[in-house]
From TrEMBL:
Keywords: DNA replication, DNA-binding, DNA-directed DNA polymerase, Nucleotidyltransferase, Transferase. This is DNA polymerase. Gene3D superfamilies: DNA Polymerase, chain B, domain 1, Palm domain of DNA polymerase, Ribonuclease H-like superfamily/Ribonuclease H. The keyword Transmembrane helix does not apply. Its EC number is 2.7.7.7. It catalyses: DNA(n) + a 2'-deoxyribonucleoside 5'-triphosphate = DNA(n+1) + diphosphate.
Length: 1076
């Protein structure tokens, strides 16, 4: 686009600014037929969808009475701005009846107090008696309250203040006039920031208004909730927020040198007071002087009518500058009255400095809350940590030089230079918008305000305490409980117990990985676990129902849980994922603002100490701990094997580190489950739990809450491990060898890797009962604890048991019949159904290895498959011929043949994998069988050699001396050591080639049928002809022959012991040297 297409507007002052884009222009470009739908709904008086943005309390005279109105500004489905006045609301507060005074005495006294106040007469309030539970103390019956009802919130506040002067206890008593809507929203459950539905409304059509205007009763203003409309176009519109955001940035100069939400802007306008070269990317408005520039800004605001206005640090500079400059030029009141639908005078404007009907958000203040521990707070810094493009770079001295030149001498060169400044200003404003979209800030605020029944503005400007109180007030009201919302003047003194901090071991930890074990939602979890809530005094276990805090947090916990479940079903790059993710994070942060001093911190201390003691008893080292987390190292016993391999140069240093990290991950995954089990046993609820997210290695601890390290978060899956090793630089193994090796290394961990988690349903209880009946087991509550609805639990699929009906017919087993809790599997030593877990792996792993020649179909098998395919095709073609009278004959092209070859090779590879994994799983059983058989064979040969020893001397005598017993004990230890060496060598042989072990096992099974002429090992070595090629095999052979010698020595020792012959102690040393 050339400069000829760039739009330039010249503004010389006045009441209008022609040519600038308006809100209607923007809506018409993004309409998608929504305006027509809206107009049709208005004509037919059908429900209207509306999302609130700005909320305020107002009054209007109705039938001569000043009446309260809740006034909300927001947007409709097409993005048009609308005002909704909600009527039918009578402000009120409650007064607690004194226990020692009857109503007949207290009520007249109360009326007298109210009427004694200035400007209050009987027509301005009403009285009625209600009954509710007080929030403090334990009450089995409701208490009487007097409800004071007024016409407007101003009268309510005046009466409330007068009543409280007489030390009368009040409830529902929010005392401010400008935030009464919070009380109203929590009691009526009104949506103040999420989609609402308006029904039975009055629509006022007035062309003089810049927005739609509706009047609706409070009962006809309801949250949309899950009631989504049937129309697809409307349903889609409700997913996207049509809030119009205005982003601005100003650059000022002084001669004194002082000084799918879419991030793409809809429209860009640049206001300048000197000649500037136009740019096709934005509308340039040349205003000639500062007065006209400020007026043009107000008229742009009026045309666009933004819902939210953002800027970076504008609350500290930009808006202060605009107001002060407009005030000094005498146009502040003019600007405000053009920017706001409500006129005002200069005193009120200066007092509040607030742009009504639009929410101002300072991006810098917002991001300082999002990143409270950041060392910087500049726009450049936040753009960098969010991974966004940087702002435009222009030094201030250069900017001021350009502006000076443009003032002193207007030229084409100065106009181009001013265009550079305009670009700098536009980019700064754009980057603010990109930051807000990146972190989904508006959606985040909407979710918080929706949960807490506060406005969108409250979500940004007020701290978490107010939002927590409002939500607790909503839950109390819903439970028919009344409470005061005024802070107590009698604040507690003294100091609450702090969090528990474990002494830090400072310095570098590079010997063992360190793992962080954290409590999830510590304070909310403690509140739910121990029912910390000011409304509860627990006198007995029967009375221990959940208090307000616990109920509210449990609801929020379940809400976030549902959100996270939905996230798993969405694409991480999608708009819907981004919106939902920001909402679940908002719920998480909001939950963490709940806090009960004293009780929570004491309970936190107790539980962190409880876990510390538990893990230390398990042999884990504690490097550091603070409040909700422990940093642990695993016991040394878990690293013995990899340490040994590293010392023997079987692992490179990097591989050794990786191995230690993997071990730590596996150990900590098991430990955190054990910790959570202990916590649940201790407190009786599942709320308090710990989780581990990463392993740190190496890590440096420098001080309290100050550490840094290299994170290792997730152990790779089998498939990832295969791909990583395949692509590793310097790899010399074939893909087939890598697949075998990875499967070999992980076969023992298959059950751990595939322990499943699922959400419990009510049908789960029925399933458990069916299982117990079929198995004939008693209903053991300890083993078969039925989970609560929505609770997650672990299960393992075991090999199905053979169950028959009364007719001796086998009953087919479903997955539910084979599901068992891990504890049950361990207790009854049930066999894990490996086939079930690795079924999905067959196809993936087979795809890696089906290239190998041994899996390719032979010409004969390929021909048979092709014949079957051809016959099938002929049959289908015959049907087609009958319909189309075609004479074409079936044939397979090259692609068809290639597809058949691929399918057949995949089948062969799957078959091989299934057998390979089966052999791996059967390996321990085969190893034991082989060693037992060989040992028995060695013992037989030893007995033949020592044929002179009587049968009586083969067993130990009970009356032998201690010296002989020591001798025989040493022989037992040598036997165990030798057996372990044989098992280790057999494992190594199998790693080289699985056929080695299988061949020995086959020979053993043959031996049991017929007696061989030569020893089994000789047959084995002869079969593979590996005397000089396989060191492990030769070692195995040599040790086996030592077993014969060892058994001979044992027989001789027993014979000597039986004969009470004294032996030389040096004989023991010789045996140790020979066999160790």
């Amino acid at each position: 686009m050339s400069e000829q297409n760039a739009q330039v507007i010249r503004f010389g002052g006045g009441e209008t600014l022609a040519g600038i884009p308006t809100r209607n222009d923007i809506i018409s470009e993004c309409d998608n037929g929504l305006t027509a739908i809206l107009q049709q709904n208005l004509s037919n008086k059908q429900p209207i969808y509306f999302v609130p943005n700005d909320v305020s309390d107002a009054t209007e005279y109705i039938n001569g009475v000043s009446t309260y109105i809740l006034r909300i500004y927001g947007t409709l489905i097409n993005g048009q701005k609308a005002r909704v006045d909600i009527t039918g609301i009578k402000p009120f507060f409650d007064i607690a009846m004194p226990d020692n005074k009857p109503l007949s005495i207290f009520k007249p006294r109360l009326v007298k107090i109210i009427l004694g106040s200035e400007k209050i007469d009987k027509s301005k309030f009403g009285i009625k008696v209600i009954h509710a539970y007080p929030i403090r103390g334990y009450h089995t019956e409701k208490k009487a309250y007097i409800c004071i009802i007024t016409w407007n919130h101003y009268d309510r506040t005046r009466i409330l203040k007068e009543v409280r002067k007489h030390n009368i206890e009040t409830a529902s008593d929010d005392i401010t006039n400008i935030y009464y809507y919070r009380k109203l929203a929590r009691e009526k459950r009104l949506p103040l920031s999420e989609w609402a539905v308006l029904s039975n409304y009055n629509y006022i059509s007035n062309t003089n208004l810049l927005h739609y205007y509706f009047c609706v009763s409070v009962n006809n203003f309801q949250p949309l909730g899950d009631n989504k409309p049937d129309e697809q176009i409307v349903s889609s519109a409700l997913i996207h927020d049509r809030t119009l955001v205005l982003t601005g940035d100003i650059e000022t100069y002084s001669s004194r040198k002082m000084g799918d939400d879419d991030p793409k802007p809809l429209k860009q306008i640049c206001l300048v007071d000197v000649e500037t070269a136009p740019d096709p990317d934005w509308v340039t408005v040349v205003c000639e002087n500062q007065t006209n520039l400020l007026k043009a800004f107000a008229l742009c605001w009026k045309a666009i009518m933004p819902d939210i206005q953002i800027g970076f640090n504008d609350s500290q500079y930009d808006w202060i500058f605009i107001i002060e400059k407009a005030k000094s030029l005498g146009i502040l009141e003019w600007m405000f009255n053009h920017m706001s639908p409500d006129s005002s005078n200069i005193e009120e404007i200066i007092k509040w400095k607030y742009r009504k009907r639009c929410i101002p958000i300072d991006v810098r203040a917002c991001f300082k809350k999002l990143y409270p521990k950041s060392e910087a707070s500049s726009l450049k810094y936040y753009l960098n940590i969010c991974g966004l493009d940087s702002k435009a770079d222009m030094p201030y001295n250069k900017m001021w030089k350009y502006y000076e030149d443009a003032i002193l001498q207007n030229s084409d060169s100065s106009a181009k230079n001013m265009c550079e400044i305009a670009h700098y200003c536009i980019i700064d404003a754009l980057r603010c918008q990109e930051l807000m979209v990146k972190r989904n800030v508006v959606n985040y605020y909407r979710e918080v305000s929706s949960i807490a029944y506060v406005s969108l503005s409250d979500a940004h400007y007020f701290a978490g305490g107010m939002k927590v109180c409002n939500l607790l007030g909503a839950e109390a009201w819903n439970s028919n409980m009344l409470c005061s919302m005024i802070a107590s003047e009698n604040t507690e003194s003294g100091k609450y117990p702090g969090a528990y901090v474990i002494t830090l071991i400072k310095g570098l930890e590079n010997k063992r990985p360190v793992t962080g074990l954290d409590f999830a939602f510590l304070y909310p979890s403690l509140i739910m676990t121990y029912n910390f809530s000011p409304d509860k005094i627990i006198l007995s276990r029967e009375e221990a129902i959940n208090g307000l805090y616990a109920r509210v947090l449990e609801n929020l916990f379940n809400k976030r849980k549902k959100m996270k479940k939905c996230l798993n079903e969405l694409d991480e790059e999608s708009f819907e994922y981004s919106c939902l993710d920001s909402k679940q994070k908002a719920v998480k942060l909001y939950m963490n603002t709940f806090y009960v001093s004293g009780g929570v911190t004491s309970a936190g201390q107790r539980n962190i100490k409880f876990v510390k003691k538990f893990v230390e008893n398990k042999g884990f080292g504690v490097k550091y701990g603070d409040t909700d987390s422990l940093y642990l190292t695993c016991p040394e016993e878990y690293f013995q094997e990899c340490d040994q391999r590293y010392k023997l140069d079987q692992l490179l240093q990097e591989e050794y580190w990786e191995e230690m990290v993997k071990i730590s991950m596996e150990v900590m995954a098991n430990l955190h489950n054990k910790v959570n089990t202990e916590l649940e046993k201790d407190n009786g609820t599942p709320y308090l739990s710990m989780a581990y997210e990463e392993v740190l290695f190496p890590v440096v601890f420098t001080g309290k809450k100050k550490y840094y390290g290299l994170e290792h978060k997730n152990k790779p899956t089998l498939i990832q491990e295969i791909m990583n090793r395949t692509l590793k630089v310097g790899n010399e193994e074939t893909i087939h060898q890598i697949v075998e090796k990875v499967l070999w290394e992980n076969v023992e961990n298959f059950p751990k890797r595939f322990v499943s988690r699922m959400e419990a349903k009510y049908s789960r209880e029925v399933l458990e009962n069916q299982q117990l009946i079929k198995k004939g087991l008693p209903a053991n509550e300890c083993l078969y604890k039925v989970p609560k609805l929505g609770e997650q639990f672990s299960y393992i699929v075991v090999v199905p048991e053979e169950i028959y009906d009364n007719c001796r017919k086998k009953i087919p087993q479903q997955k539910g019949d084979c599901m068992e809790y891990p504890d049950v599997v361990k207790k009854f030593n049930k066999k894990i159904n490996i086939d079930y877990y690795i079924k999905s792996l067959f196809g993936l792993c087979a795809r890696f290895i089906n290239y190998d020649d041994k899996y390719q179909p032979s010409p004969e098998s390929l021909s048979k498959v092709m014949d079957r395919k051809k016959k099938s095709k002929e049959k289908k073609l015959k049907i087609a011929k009958d319909l189309l009278q075609s004479n074409d004959s079936p044939s397979l092209d090259e692609d068809g043949i290639a597809k058949i070859k691929d399918e057949e090779s995949q089948k062969s590879a799957k078959k091989w994998l299934k057998n390979y994994i089966k052999n791996l799983c059967d390996a321990p059983k085969k190893d034991e069988a082989i060693i037992s058989h060989l040992w028995k064979n060695a013992t037989t040969q030893a007995e033949k050699i020592c044929s002179g020893i009587s049968e009586a001397g083969i067993t130990r005598s009970s009356g032998v001396s201690a010296e002989h017993n020591n001798y025989l004990n040493i022989l037992d230890k040598i036997t165990d050591s030798t057996r372990s060496k044989l098992l280790n060598l057999l494992s190594k042989l199998s790693k080289l080639n699985l056929g080695y072990r299988n061949a020995i096992y086959d020979l053993i099974t043959q031996v049991q049928k017929r007696k061989p002429k030569i020893t089994i090992l000789e047959q084995y070595i002869f079969l593979y002809d590996l005397e000089s090629e396989c060191r492990e095999l030769i070692d195995f052979w040599n040790i086996w022959y030592k077993v014969v010698g060892l058994e001979i020595t044992r027989l001789q020792a027993l014979s000597i012991t039986y004969g009470s012959k004294k032996d030389d102690p040096s004989d023991i040393d010789d045996i140790i040297d020979l066999y160790c």
